[in-house]
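2024-03-11 09:14:02 INFO worker-7 job=invfold-0412 stage=load source=structure_tokens
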């Protein structure tokens, strides 16, 4: 599949189910339609179609190159948040960082996480993987780039044109991070 412009989602989901079964079954049962609908209502926009299908047809998180967060009763962050809770945490109001002696702030206060960019995972080796809910692109970010006040167009990198392409690379044996495709322009 490598190099193909189009990756077939049905085949990717079937391979994920098989891999999950080979590894002892999914750690989180599939999401219910109600859980997905409640998540979308909280977000105020729909989940990308591929993510929605993964949660409903394979597992409610815990699968993929990094354990993807679920919705509702699915996989949660160490702080106990589902995918929507993590998004609300990064996109909501920020507290200013404490000041160093002498009055300088340790880092800039971040108040502009890009809209509709959902963190897919907790940080892994300093990277956070995200999905743009509007375009379906998978993005990666160095976790501290946001906290340092760097504009998101500078610290978010393109990982893959779609969730299915990202998952296909992993199923073919490639470890994340994949080959970033350059800065994300943001919207």
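2024-03-11 09:14:09 INFO worker-7 stage=emit residues=187
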């Amino acid at each position: 599949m490598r190099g193909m412009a189009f990756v077939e989602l049905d085949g990717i989901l079937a391979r994920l189910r098989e891999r999950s079964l080979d590894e002892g079954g999914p750690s989180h049962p599939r999401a219910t339609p109600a859980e997905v609908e409640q998540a979308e209502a909280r977000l105020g926009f729909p989940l990308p179609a591929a993510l929605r299908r993964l949660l409903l047809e394979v597992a409610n998180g815990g699968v993929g190159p990094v354990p993807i967060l679920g919705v509702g009763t699915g996989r949660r962050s160490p702080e106990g948040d589902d995918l929507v809770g993590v998004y609300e945490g990064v996109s909501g109001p920020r507290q200013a960082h404490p000041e160093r002696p002498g009055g300088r702030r340790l880092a800039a206060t971040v108040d502009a996480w890009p809209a509709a960019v959902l963190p897919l995972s907790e940080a892994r080796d300093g990277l956070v993987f995200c999905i743009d809910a509007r375009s379906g692109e998978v993005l990666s970010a160095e976790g501290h780039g946001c906290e340092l006040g760097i504009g998101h167009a500078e610290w978010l990198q393109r990982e893959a044109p779609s969730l299915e392409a990202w998952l296909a690379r992993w199923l073919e044996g490639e470890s994340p991070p994949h080959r970033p495709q350059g800065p994300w322009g943001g919207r």
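2024-03-11 09:14:09 INFO worker-7 stage=report msg="Residues 9-93+108-171 form a domain with the SMI1/KNR4-like fold (CATH 3.40.1580.10)."
2024-03-11 09:14:10 INFO worker-7 job finished
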